[in-house]
Amino acid sequence: MTDSLPRIVESPFQANIQYRGRLLYPERGPLVHAQRLALAFEPEPARLHLLASPGLWYGLPELLASLPADCAVLALEADPALAELSRLCLPEGLDANPRFAFVEGFDPSALVEAARRLGRFRRVRLVRLSGGAAFSPGAYEKAEALLNEDFSAFWKNRVSLMAMGRLWVRNIFRNLARLDEMAPEPLPRFRKPVLLCGAGPSLELVLPLLHRCRGQLDLVAVDTAVGPLVQAGYLPDLVVCLEAQIWNLRDFLPLNGVALPILADLSSHPASFKAAGGRTHLSLTAIEEGPFLRRLGALALPFLSLPPLGSVGVHAFEVALRLAEAPILLAGLDFAWPVGKSHARGAPALMAAEFRRIRLSGEADFAGSFRPEARKTPSGWFSDHVLSRYAALAAELAAARKALAPGQLFDLRGPGGLDLGLRRLSPEDALALVQSFPPLPASPLPPATPPQLEDLQSSNPSPHSVGRAFLESELRELVALESILRGSSPHPGSTALGGLIAERDYLLWTQPDAHRLGELPQDLLNRILVEVAYWSGLLGELLRD
């Protein structure tokens, strides 16, 4: 008869664990066996060692002692009975070790949180020093994959911050400085069915539908879809923009002076607002969790706060989900392309390929279709890893909405795009759906007001004064910080100095070793001084204009 609960059994050598008819360590020399396994690992930098089923913690001291300073051990016990035993046997003082954590039960959020508390690592190394992992088959491999995915996302984000962080912050400051020109307004809610348009090839499929029921739809378009829609004779009710660089200005060339309402992120290129020319609405994307963006979000401005979703198409989908009170129909958000046609007709990328055509180059964008990372999809179209990831994010958003409000999301993209898990409609069914909704008057969406700003908003400050006050405060703090770093002002102490820098965490966005801030190494402080001087100079220019 097997044991239903684990128990410690004594042997002539060391204690062992007996559970469900088996010993978790070898009968002879269990401690020595675990120690040898622990010492067999070649030390590698920045590795999190995931200790599967720690049991009696044999081998853990040796493992910790052999690891480089930038490594740590995260012990995981997925079996509840074994977790209770391991907790009771935890060596005294081990839980106070900053390079160690113990998680009981397979809780993804708790696992990720514990790993982040231990530090930032490149990869996970799965370590088995006992046989307890056999009682939770697959759990530890799933935990390893989960943590590796979290680490990968973190470092990809770090790379993005290093490449784009300075541009994003520069755009934010410049946009705050010209809020008087923008005159941002709260976003209206969409009371009619929403046709959300990306610039994929399937956008062309809905043009006949627009011809028959344009007045019964709220038309929301990503910036790249403006050209195809305007050239077909349809002006969007809202254009969604997320681009920090100047390249997306070509999206607005077909407007030829026609003004369109725009929802652009505060980090978007300032020229995007002028290019659209219509009413301005602002979003604030949480590019990076930290004090800088939290302070921005607390301003008395009509922001629509959004998570970082990467793709303007997924970003626009989230906007539509936030504002729509009627069904949402998707078109052009394909995340894939057929051979020779990366976008709908009239989109800048496809037009650029057409301009490059000569008699011998064919009539399609074959270079874009057959780039090295392209992979064929079940529909016969092509996609790549980046677009597939964006499609997965869109599918997650769709699934969350479907769980709350079934029957609100519909797919008009035809058979070619990546599957988003939505009900597909024919043009006839889509027309019947749209016409079944009576027109409703628009209702404004009031901006979110942080409780701490009730007194400030009661005096009705203008957006311009709010933006200018933020920039002035930021400049004062940067000047004071620069004085400390140059030695012109008294040093406030390591903890206080680290706090002053961390409060303006955008100073660290371009630093690959930002995680070293707690140590305040001089080389990092020297580079932060360069950043402080750059931003204080820019803010001084913006406030003088």
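the 2nd protein, sequnce then structure:
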Amino acid sequence: MKRYQSLVVTWAMTIITTLSPTLGYAQEAADSDARTLSYVTQKATAAVIVRSRRVLTAPSMNMLPTEILTAAGQQELGIDPLDIVELLAFAEAPAEGPPGYGAVVRFAKAYDLAKIRLPITWPVEQSELNDRLYLQSQNPMTPGFYMPDDKTLLIAPHHVINDMLASRQQPAASALIRLLAKADAKSDILAIVMLDPVRPMLNAVVAQGAGALPPPLQGVARLPDLIEAAKLDVRILDTPGASLALLSPDEEKATELVATLNNVIDVGQQMILQNVVSELDGEDPIQVATAQYTQRITKQMLDAVRPVQSGRVARILYGQESDNMQVASIGVLVALLLPAVQSAREAARRMQSSNNLKQIAIAMHNYHDAHGTLPPPAGMDADGKPLLSWRVHLLPFVGHAELYEQFHLDEPWDSEHNSTLIEAIPAVYRNPSSSAAPSLANFLVPVGDGSIFATPEGTGFGKISDGTSNTILVVEVNDDASVIWTKPEDFDYDPARPMVGLGSAHPGGFQVSLADGSVRFISNTIDRDTFLNLLMMADGNDVRLD
């Protein structure tokens, strides 16, 4: 098993190293290009050419671990990846039957197919084709392996292998092959896609999703009709950079294409900046500066990829010609920085939320010490009508005695006087990650049947027969379940669906305070019965979160 895993990993390393633009691509002689292209089938609509040997062996790339790659490749594959002069992969337009695809690998020296190692589970069977060894695939979806000469390896399903050999005898003359043949010899990676064969399919896909596009992006639905072909050219050694060329049927459509792409960039820039601003804390000077920096760099980065029209062609350049490589690098750093900033901020907010729950739980215990019971879910008038929430009555125990003194305790929460205090919500009743209205509390007590606060009277700890470390005291609810903090309203759960209103306070779940004062994080995938048992204070079920 370890041997098999090592073999698979080495194949993956070779492919990644060959394809990755960060490791390089190369080109050998033009006759190698011609031999490689001659195997591309007439039905191919997209192709990628990677030239690897020159870059991997270039003096400027001597920091690459080529010795390790060579040793691993020879041991696990029977191939030295540095011998791969060129790799071409192509895909055919979808049609009836299995999808058509293939690859051509050109080596700098002769190789023996019998000595090339494949994973032992690969579904191939040894046979012969044109008097040469053929590892024919037994699955129409997976590729077989064939070497028509000692320096060329064909990788494709059986039906495509036959088409590739036929193309070699009578080379195809499709538009794709003509564009590939005209490619600049300095290209280290070249990708070309012809849209004509797949335009009906693209239009059908776009039509299905067009209704969901916002008005500013409705022009995107026209893109399949505005592009005939797309060519991506990447260079690593000679004038590092990249260019994307989009060919339109005529100049008028090229103009429309450029306008559409610019509009997409504008809308994308607005969406990115709005998201950044909404995620950053406007009261923190460092966060404000981060937002300003992000706005500046985002605009510069997106402006760098605006298309330039030349006749029927819309071209986007990345490289020394427009100093965009530095902008791209900065953009990548920003893209990496923001999730880290947001993740760290969420972790800090979750910790603050945990501290708030802890403070509430301690206040509950102190209230119990002072009154002999936990606070009732609400204060009542003489007729048994709820007036003010337990959150108001707990104020003296969370450091807000002065605010508590301002309430008229014999009036309901929405009385003329008490209404004026709704905006004075203490931060301890808020989840810092909440985007709910400022006067809404995210910390509620369970008031469903069997819970600690199910009755209008305050409950003593002695009645929690399931154990204080086994029973929920306070829950952290979602924004849509939060309530006005002074209102006598709490978490009245349905036993059949006790998780409604919970689960998204933080990524992956929410927090609760147990009756013993501890705070625990509850996954939003917790079993329904387990969570229901935690809400009950005396159901006899011993549920341990550990």
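Residues 1-32, 320-333 have pLDDT under 50 and may be disordered. The chain has 14 helices and 20 strands.
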